[in-house]
Design a protein that fits this description.
The complex is a heterodimer of chains A (about 725) and B (about 250). By secondary structure, chain A is α+β, with helices and mostly antiparallel strands. Helix content of chain A is about 60%, strand content about 15%. Chain A has helices at about 1-10, 15-40, 90-95, 125-130, 150-185, 190-200, 200-240, 255-280, 300-325, 325-380, 385-420, 435-440, 475-480, 500-510, 575-615, 620-625, 630-670, 680-705, 710; strands at about 55-60, 60-65, 75-80, 85, 100-105, 110-115, 115-120, 135-140, 425-430, 445-460, 465-470, 485-490, 495-500, 515-520, 525-535, 545, 555-560, 570-575. In chain A, helix 5 (about 150-185) packs parallel to helix 8 and helix 11 packs antiparallel against helix 15 (about 575-615). Chain A is elongated and about 95 Å long. The model of chain A has no long low-confidence stretch (mean pLDDT about 85). With about 250 residues, chain B is α/β, with parallel strands linked by helices. Chain B has helices at about 45-55, 75-85, 105-115, 120-130, 145-160, 175-190, 205, 230-245, and strands spanning about 5-15, 20-30, 35-40, 60-65, 70, 90, 165, 195-200, 210-215, 220-225. A six-stranded mixed sheet of chain B has the order 6-7-8-3-9-10, sandwiched between helices. In chain B, helix 3 (about 105-115) runs parallel beside helix 5 and helix 4 packs antiparallel against helix 5. The model of chain B has no long low-confidence stretch (mean pLDDT about 85). The interface of A and B includes residues 10 and 202 of A. The structure holds adenosine-5'-triphosphate and magnesium ion (MG).
Amino acid sequence: MLKLSIRLLRARLGTSVATLVALAAGVMILMTLSVFIVSAAVYKPDPGRYAAVDVVVAHRQVEIVTKEFDGETSVTTAALPEGTVPADLGDKLRALPGVTEVQVFPGPAKDRVAAFGVKGDAVKAVERLAKENGVEAYAGDDRGFADRSEAGDARSFLMEAGSAFGGYVVLLIIFVVTGTVGLAVRHRRRDLALLRAIAATPRQVRKLVMAENAVLALAASVVGVPAALLATTWVHDQLVSRGFVPEGFPITGQPLAAGIAVVLILLVAVVAARIAARRVSRIKPAEALGDIAVEPSRGGKVRFVSGVLTLGAGGAATVFALGATGMAAQASAIGLLYLYVIAVALLAPWINALAARVLGPVLRTTWGVSGGLAVANLRANARGSAAVLTALVLAVGFGGSVWFLQNNLQRQTVTQSQDGMKTDYALVGSMPAGTAEKIRRTPGVEAATGVRNTSVVVPIFDGGEAATAKAVDTDGLSSTMDLGVDKGSLDQLKGNSVAVSQLRADSSGWKLGDGAKIWLPDGRQVTLKVVAIYDRGLGFADVLLPRDLVAGPDDQVLVRGTAVRIPGATLVPASELTGQLSRDLALSAWLNKLLIGVMVGYAALAAGNTMVMAALARKRELAVLQLAGVTRRQVRRMVTAEQVGLLGGALTIGALIAAVTLTAVVNALTGSLLPYVPPMGWVVVLGGATVLALVTTILPVRRLLRVPAVHNAGIKE
Amino acid sequence: MDAVIRIEQLTRTYATDGQKVTALAGVDAAFARGTFTAVMGPSGSGKSTLLQTAAGLDRPSSGRVWIGDTELSKLNETKLTELRRDRIGFVFQAFNLIGALTVEENILLPGRLSGLLPDPRWVSEVVERVGLTQRLQHRPAQLSGGQQQRVAIARALAVRPEVIFADEPTGALDTTSAGEVLSLLRSAVTDYRQTVVMVTHDPVAASYADRVLVLADGRIVHDTPQPGADRIAEMLASLGRRLVAVEG
Ligand SMILES: Nc1ncnc2c1ncn2[C@@H]1O[C@H](COP(=O)(O)OP(=O)(O)OP(=O)(O)O)[C@@H](O)[C@H]1O
Ligand SMILES: [Mg+2]
């Protein structure tokens, strides 16, 4: 069976290459992504100042245990920026049998220390004790995690990016591979039906198709794995030069990553082949004998109903995303894009038929006889071109929405920060907590606000997550920053109180006057009264805390009035503060853009691929047309008209999906109902799709037309 | 009678776009072991449909088909394929060959799929008699239409099936090659007691058969022992007149 499948593959190089390209690119993307996730997962930072002890007791993360509906519990963890350990734990540690020495690493306050270093043979007991007290013990290779380090940050950054995008990347690859394999098998309907008629059982046909695609997947790995190695090196260099990861951060686990990628692609390809073959192996052998293996031009009822249901689910999700805000909406809105694309995939035959009907008159007027032929083809082939339509819609929808999300976020952040910054300049550097107080007394200074930038852990519906926070000294706060307070007042931000952004309040379910349960940067869980809710969360921070709730020095003092100089701090004019902010944002956006760019690129590749494949599969049909007296010029015009018909549908639907998704997410993230799209953005997306569609169809067709028609009209397909 | 194939009240209708086309309108027939039957009739009369349903390539709308003691409607697709593979050879009207495989591979394909390779001496004899010995390593695309048809016949004969169905096997052949093919089929019947059912429009080809069935509008209108080429031509001509009379 394997030999036979290789023979059949070789005979259809065109379509095999298309599938191969989709699979190889899939292997490359998956493996590169996996290398970074694996590297991050196995990375152990240097123990640094804990090298001499056996176990470190520290508090680096909050664990939140939630009960699920089915009684199971799930644990989410959120990192703490400056977690501390209660000082009285020291005596308990010393009392443990087996502990020979306990070193204290002092913290910012008397009753909380940064960490305990424990020597002795009592790892298990120390771990248990730490757990009982809500902190963690780090032993052996893990000791390095007890301190926040650049490499440790890089690790969590990579893990975060991986978990945020990994699922979507895998889904996209599944989508593309299923589509491409499905189309390739569909084009071989005749061949496979003939095999069935000659003597192959349905099972043998299925096995043959699966074997073929397994061979293709393995061949794709041979190309994809080395490509991934190159890509990994390039991305790593970029990450290092952009300061995302430290120079020495090890990139490891290539064999494991390659294994993951190859196995996954193999699995997806074979399963996709199995599904596609199911349809083919069910056709009656007698159908193979007709001149052209006829297939029903529309899908079945089940397909239509599923399509409508998926569309309905997409609509419902949109309303939910538009109505809700915060993280819940963000997740649901990206899933939204996929929902819509799946709905389009299911409804494609009807969409194509409708597009043919609506655009028919236009095509006929513009292209005459060729246009008429094009309309007939579009209608007859409504089902066959489903894969092409879906791929185009996916590329346009993806390119037009997710790609611009980052722009919207950046723009909103900078705008909010610019609008809210009322200070003349800022002093930046580590300054003891009372510095602002002293500056305020300097003549010529109207107001000064000490700020410590940090993060807290806040509850969301199924656990907790880190949220940006500023601990501020509230004296004269309204003169240095305008947060756009909506409800309540920042004057009451004293003692056990907190101010939160509107988005944060929504996703954590807080209202003015509520007690908000949050974990402070040092890990203590407290209940703070919500005294104000403000709009400019993106430009400043999600959470605003009274300065005395957070220990440690200020890292910024915002000053309005005369310039004051402090040793050890740099003076930065307000205009440059926002400039710096947008540079920082652009930096952190780089990886997002890279990942999204890869996904958009893959979707575009799939679209191009699908169209080349569909064009090449028409060898016979175009030859027969020529023999019937249609000139080459007319054939070319017909193909162009068909593409225009397909594009009309694809661009309209893709743009619609992109607009809905973008609006939903932007609204959720920034509160603005009108998303921002860079002026050239739509031109690039729509123009790019048009050029892609025309080039990938017209060039292959030109090549087909160069061969005399009689050679192609024969039995070969 | 020792019937290898028996069909009973066979009907086959196609429904396309709400229109119903009746290809077979109740056909009863039996084909005995070691006989050669020619099926004739105007274009569209249901000859190909009859062959395909009798060979288990297509499922009838109603009625039953037996191959030996096995009733086909009781079999699932896999069992049906296995039965076809072991006991039936089929030569289609067109598009018979897998373009990716050589002539030789095409001929051996059914054996390869069933795992039972046919006797090599028999295969080379068949190949010789269809005149393809020099062409074994060629691709179908490099052969003429008639040569392709002969490959398909060789493939059907190679496994020595009990029954051979051939749908216009000589339609694309010159008189000499057609004669070769027909005597090949004839000797399969006479020498090996295989059963051949062959569709043809050519009275001369039909004269190689023991029996002639004539179909019109999905029904058998004549069923006679070999009447000779001239009489066959007359029968077909009268059928044409009758159809004209009915339509007029
Ligand atoms: N797949 C199909 N769908 C609809 N109608 C069909 C189909 N296959 C055959 N028919 C119709 O069934 C009738 C019988 O067709 P069949 O192929 O059996 O004719 P035939 O006698 O073999 O003709 P010919 O001598 O031209 O080969 C014809 O009217 C044909 O149009
Ligand atoms: Mg026929």
